[in-house]
Amino acid sequence: MTEDLDIKLIKYMQDGLPLTKTPYKDIADGLGMTEDAVIERLKVLLENGKIRRLAASIAHRKIGINSNAMTVWKVPSERVEECGPIMAAFEEVTHCYERPTFPGWEYNVFTMIHGYTDEECENVIESIKQKTGLDDYVMLYSEREFKKVGVRI
Amino acid sequence: MALSETDKKILQRLQTNLPLTHRPFLDLAKELELDEDLIIDRVKSMIEEKYVRRLAPIINTQAVGNSATLAAMQVPEDRIEDVAEVINGYSGVSHNYLRKGKNRELPLNIWFTMSAPSQEKLEENIKEIETRTGFDVRMLPTTKKFKIGVKFKIY
């Protein structure tokens, strides 16, 4: 029951908050809920991680953050636990994941790095190299953006 | 419309959680020492001008039951456009980029993320892309997550 309500709430909100002085009240009115209930559900969803954040999705390329280096690293499996958090600690690293390898593809840790310039991204990469001692990596810069939309349910 | 220093200040703050209060923009105004009406007005403008894609819950699709993966393809130059278009056609595809290695050359050049209501459906869509384009799709799901937190330094 609560789950259905949560999905209903997320779906109602996912295209954007009403830009009014009392957005949660307006959402509540639209859904036949109380404002307190809407705020309560949102708190729970943020706490349990179903909603990562209730915030703005910024068109980063439009504001000049055009350098996007998806940097893939070959990390010895026994060092992944150690190196992942070191890479993740950098502010410019927005995503850091371990992914599978297969014959011909040995890069197992992926870091997504954004910057205003390539130089910015590469400074971060140099710092990661220094802190981890890793040297086997490829910087995969984005050349074209075919599609970029927010996740929706 | 160029962004003013005030706009940038608002934008920077908007990247983290909005207050969950009766008057969230008023609370933001107090935080930023700006006016509530100004904040609402600037947010509207920034959305209209597409600096902000949306002000909304950022959903963790896996937490709501979906399966997702990063995927990569090796596509010759003359087929890139139409392959990209095929991939874009799936509503579960949120990111789709052409990438190139800077310090080393790598053959995988089209990279996309896809989400679906189940692992089965995800794999079905991927197989469909393979059939429709004639190229293999390499799935690279997350085996361990160290960080997901998109936050830009806006200046």
UniProtKB/TrEMBL annotation, chain A:
Cross-referenced SMART domains: HTH_ASNC (SM00344)
Keyword vocabulary terms for this entry: Lyase
Protein name: siroheme decarboxylase
Enzyme Commission code: 4.1.1.111
GO MF terms, alphabetically ordered: lyase activity
Ranges of residues in domain Siroheme decarboxylase NirL-like HTH: 6-52
Family affiliation: Belongs to the Ahb/Nir family.
Swiss-Prot/TrEMBL catalytic activity: siroheme + 2 H(+) = 12,18-didecarboxysiroheme + 2 CO2
Coiled-coil segments on the chain, per record: none
Pfam families: AsnC_trans_reg2, NirdL-like_HTH
Domain Siroheme decarboxylase AsnC-like ligand binding: residue ranges: 62-147
UniProt pathway annotation: Porphyrin-containing compound metabolism
